[in-house]
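Morning. Coffee machine broken again, so started the prediction first thing and wrote up yesterday's gels while waiting. Chain of 134 residues, entered below exactly as on the submission form.
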Amino acid sequence: MGYSKPQFRLSLSILAVCFVFALSSGATKKPPLKPININSANSEELQQVPGIGPATAEKILQMRKSYGAFKSVDDLLSIRGIGKKRLEKMRKYLTVSKFTAGNRPRPTLSVSPPKKPDPPSSDSPTAETEEPPR
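Came back before lunch.
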């Protein structure tokens, strides 16, 4: 019960076409519409960027957790696996914001807090006198 040569070739050709299609569909990732902030993006958002897969996204998140916010997109060069050529392809899809969700400055209120009373002076009695009971 074996395949004839034409059947085997046809099966092998179909398998090859499926394999090529699967590789090309995964490689043609649709880039994000707006740049991704590497200081606030999660793994899924980072993976929208061409050149960033699950492993690289996790490395970026781990570096951000360990060392704090990125100051520049160029800081990604310190991640193993990201070189100058790869970063240049990704650069237009990435941005760095000064403030992340955890360190945004709080809005200042225009109302000043109430003033505390001055402490008693040395020439005034320190204990308050009680009124005698009636």
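Strands lie at 36-37, 94-95. Going to sketch it on the whiteboard this afternoon.
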